[in-house]
Design goal:
Blueprint lengths: L8 E4 L8 H12 L5 H23 L8 H16 L4 H8 L11 H9 L3 E6 L3 H11 L5 E4 L10 H11 L6 E5 L2 H8 L4 E5 L15 E3 L2 H9 L5
Parallel strand pairs: 1-2, 1-4, 2-3, 4-5, 5-6
Length: 233
């Protein structure tokens, strides 16, 4: 296997990999429904995440026209509000944009900065272009560029999204490293020839015994150390 350090561009999944999506949504639901106990908040969070996953699957299967993440998040917020008995329009509207205010993991900002000193760094997300812009600003994410599946009207793991990253990178797929906390995401990238690195995150989708990714790392610091070893700016 070639040295993982020979890549030119590092592409990051965002939701769950660089920002704590479940934790951020849970906090937003708690703010919107402060009288709910922990079990209820967890149930509402599950309803939100299941709605997003189901609607993305329906779009992938051709059962629904493409709708961007902002639309699907608004639907999820209305669903949660109905189940929580929340009727305040302003509170529901704020809840609908919770996905644009997710906190970064503790190692994210420094890890991105380290890598951006040595590689072109690209964010590749299922979040809409507007949501990705606002989320990046909120979380303090340092990019050279970002790309959204909205540009090709599909969601990962559709191959069109990874091709978008490769086209943006302007180099062969084997020179592009996809980093994610979700094995399903990395499998999609691997299928079109991208290099792959798994980073462990709570609530992520860990590799199985049959996955053959180019690297597996405990955190972003470990990844940055591995990729930058022996490199000069």
């Amino acid at each position: 296997m070639a040295d993982i350090r020979d890549v030119e561009v590092v592409v990051f999944d965002v939701l769950g990999t660089l920002v704590d999506e479940p934790g951020g949504l849970r906090a937003a639901i708690r703010d919107a429904a402060p009288t709910s106990d922990d079990a209820t908040v967890d149930e509402l969070l599950t309803s939100w995440l299941e709605h997003v996953e189901l609607e993305q699957q329906r779009i992938a299967q051709g059962h629904r026209p493409y709708a961007n993440s902002e639309i699907i998040d608004r639907e999820a917020a209305r669903l949660v509000a109905e189940r929580a008995g929340l009727a305040d329009p302003a509170a529901i509207a704020r809840l609908a944009t919770a996905g644009q205010r997710l906190p970064p993991w503790g190692d994210t900002v420094v890890g991105l900065e380290r890598l951006a000193d040595h590689f072109a760094v690209l964010g590749l997300s299922n979040a809409s272009r507007t949501a990705l812009l606002r989320l990046s600003a909120h979380a303090g994410l340092r990019w050279h560029q970002t790309s959204s599946g909205e540009a090709v009207l599909v969601y990962k793991p559709a191959q069109e999204v990874y091709r978008l990253a490769i086209d943006t990178a302007g180099c062969p797929p084997e020179r592009v490293l996809m980093v994610a906390a979700h094995a399903w995401d990395l499998r999609g990238a691997q299928a079109i020839g991208m290099r792959t690195a798994y980073v462990h995150r709570p609530g992520g989708d860990p590799p199985t015994s049959t996955d053959t990714f180019d690297g597996r790392f405990d955190d972003l610091d470990d990844l940055a150390t591995a990729l930058t070893a022996g490199r000069t700016r």
